[in-house]
């Protein structure tokens, strides 16, 4: 039996309080030791005068402060392991996450460059979900969501990593997945799992959602009019907005 590959865990963050709980779970579960790798936190808080980020059990890399795509690039370029596992800073990994990750990637052939984990989004059991909650729940079926996605470092280097023109947490993962696949590799789904809570929407959530239309335009410019089918993406927000407006929703 071949030895398990080494895996570094990269977590981009803008300073959410949830990061502490994630690091506690990873350190308490001896994840770095189990994966024979490192936990790398990319501090992407804007402002060069930000106080040092407390990240017990992790190495902290300073990000450029211009979005998750650039932050993840800073993280994987600081990594040295064969595989790089990306986690969002607000997920909660299952207790067996590290072992399941090793199981997911340990026997993959060289033609497979990525392994996507299972993402669970708990919705309120006592009422219908809001539009924002349904939007977040889309992570459960999304293809190539970097809430929990591991890539071979050589594949990331071959395609140049994330496109930093995507400055929001939207479409940068789909763009990378398409470039990985079109370069000849495959991305498979694994059995490990994380829980992704729904954060409070905030007063500007509709503005942030509509801003994603610009990323859809960039995706079409980069990958052609059929990019949604290739990436397994649902109809765009603008189209859904027009449909619901005409319907009087």
Task: Provide an overview of this structure.
By secondary structure, the chain is of the alpha/beta class. It has a single domain, classed as Spore Coat Polysaccharide Biosynthesis Protein SpsA, Chain A (Alpha-Beta Complex). It has ten helices and eight strands. The chain has an eight-stranded mixed beta sheet, sandwiched between helices. The longest helix has 19 residues, at 205-223. It is globular and about 45 Å long. The protein starts with 6 loop residues before the first strand and ends with a helix. The model is unreliable at 237-249 (pLDDT under 50).
Provide a concise account of the structure shown.
By secondary structure, this protein is of the alpha/beta class.
What is the level 1 CATH name? Alpha Beta
Tell me roughly what share of residues is in helical segments.
25-40%
Question: How many individual β-strands?
Answer: 8
CATH architecture: Alpha-Beta Complex
Uncertain ranges: 237-249
The name CATH uses for the topology is Spore Coat Polysaccharide Biosynthesis Protein SpsA, Chain A
**How many domains, in number, for the residues?**
1
Q: What is the spatial order of strands in the main beta sheet?
A: 3-2-1-4-7-6-8-5
Supply the helix-strand structural class. alpha/beta
| Cα-based radius of gyration, to the nearest Å | 18 Å
The rounded distance between the terminal residues' Cα atoms is 58 Å
Strand content: 15-25%
